[in-house]
Amino acid sequence: MSLQEYRLRIKFSVPKDERYPNEDSHQCSKRRGIFALSDGASVSYDSALWSRILVRHYCIRPEIDQQWLTGAIAEFSRIHNRDSLPWMMQAAFDRGSFASLLGVRYEQGGTGVQVFAVGDSLAVLCEGDKVVDSWPYKDASQFARDPQLISTNPEDNNFLFQEETQQRFKVNWDLVGMSAPAVFCMTDALGCWLLARRDEAPSPVTTLRSLSKRREFGEFVRSEHDAGRLKRDDTTVLGFW
Questions:
Q1: Domains of the chain
Q2: pTM, two decimal places
Q3: Which burial class, exposed, middle or buried, applies to 30 when counting CB atoms under 10 A from its CB (0-12, 13-18, 19+)?
Q4: Which of 1, 11, 108, 114 has the fewest Cβ atoms within 10 Å of its own Cβ atom?
Q5: CA dist 241 → 2, 103, 168 (Å)
Q6: One pLDDT digit (tens) per residue for the chain, 241 residues
């Protein structure tokens, strides 16, 4: 059974505070089997816009190279004309905007999934409600590290194009032999929550599967915030099975 026989079941995103913009972005090209998720870094300049640009460019062309990145940065610079900004905003603009990028696409025939991940947004492969694998992190403790993120400053992206390092951002999941495959994509707070509870009962996957409306997802996020189990942050999840 292939993942393409399934459909996008959940697509929810809630801000950490309703008074401020949600810096998470997501986009889906269902016909082409491409999904993208990005989490803008709050400390950087207009990271909400940068995350939107990244997911849109990924869904148009899911191959990250110098041309791809140059085009994304140029779009950001066109929208924010540096010379027209006040000097304090120019300084913030010069420091750059930063965001994660998580891209998922079906392989031809629907028997495999390729995941591309830069930063700390997480993809999770499940068999039913059991976590089989996750990428790029395997353990909740890894979220304590400062992640490498994609920047609007070209020199900050050199790590992406070092010789023979591109493959370290990718993983391929083979779905052959799986009876009930599912893939979830989520930003860091929810990813850390899930990996910390992957062996608990009920499974955290069961919890996410049960959320069918945005209101329910928002209530779940607020409840986990209040209980201290979920970091207070913009929180986004995509799930298909």
A1: 3-240 (3.60.40.10)
A2: 0.93
A3: exposed
A4: 108
A5: 10, 17, 26
A6: 455 556 889 999 999 998 999 999 999 998 888 999 999 999 889 999 999 999 999 999 999 999 999 999 999 999 988 888 888 888 878 888 999 999 999 876 668 899 999 999 999 999 999 999 999 999 999 999 999 999 999 999 999 987 655 678 999 999 888 999 999 999 999 999 999 999 999 999 999 999 999 999 999 999 999 999 999 999 999 998 8
